[in-house]
Amino acid sequence: MNKYKNLTIATSIDGKGGVATVLNVLKSEGFFSQSNSELLVSHSRYYKYKLFNSLFVFTLCINKLIYNLLFNKVGAIHFHMSSRGSYMRKSILVRIAKCFKVKIIIHLHSGEFRKFYSEECNSKKREHIRNTFNMADKVIVLSAQVLDWLNTILDDKSKGVVIYNSVPCKLIKPLMDSEFFNFVFLGRLADKKGVSDLIMAFSIVAKSYPQARLLLGGDGELDKFKILVSKLNLNDSVQFLGWISGDAKDELLRKTNSYVLPSYNEGFPMGILEAMSCNIPIIATDVGGIPDAITSGEEGLLINAGDIDGLTNAMKYSIESPLEIQRMQEKASIKYLNKFSPNIIIPQLITIYKDLGVA
To answer: pTM for this one?
Structure first.
């Protein structure tokens, strides 16, 4: 039996977005029980009384953290961190934890953290960030690309390690003989996710392939993109589905012919892994951790962020070349099983806890 109690500090597991999805996977796959970890919520999104709620949740988190540090034998604290507000909250909590000499793990999720560090922070704040990361005993990042950057701010480069996100394998049978070819996007609808690029590219594809449909699942700037769709006369072929989860998401994946993610920044997107696990063809940009998962022409098709012509050609190719796409699907499925399934990723996380002597 583990003699230590470990803590995980992150956004609410009931929230939307990538980190909440990661936490749900860790919970469902038994990571919290295996590592004897309790989740403390540092942030939760409510649209009503947002500022008050954020302050209340963060204050409660501080109180729970100090209580555990005083009255329990805490071994390690695992901070799931993004940029901006997430960083500021976690940096305060890291310093509280450091006073009690517990082991600190920083798990960096943000695909924009390097941009946040270099473009949004002055020299004093960059020094603060370097100090925070150097307080950690281990820093987990989601791609080799981010690890290269991390090593520029770590004094001890052995602290950094790449551990990919993971999703459980979904046993979803694709819908056969549909009259439509469905391109699907899942995530926050925003320009940084390439949604304008996607709609523009689809408008060209739809002229040649009237059976094509674009299904946009997610919240965000819906009004803005609905106006764009109307201007391009695409109302009959583009659907806005809202936030999709649970059985509705599984049903959507059943009728997905191609998963498209033309983002400008990413950490290691869970949607890419879900598509790989479901044997769904992928079109994505070569940003963040995506190239760690997809080699263009091997497990999917990669384009440069902002390349609308490249995106258009990739979408057309996915319709025109079913045999080549099937070959990529099969390779993606094998790569998922060998590198990104929970059976591979959870033991890697547990090994970190064992190496730190807290599991």
So the answer is: 0.92
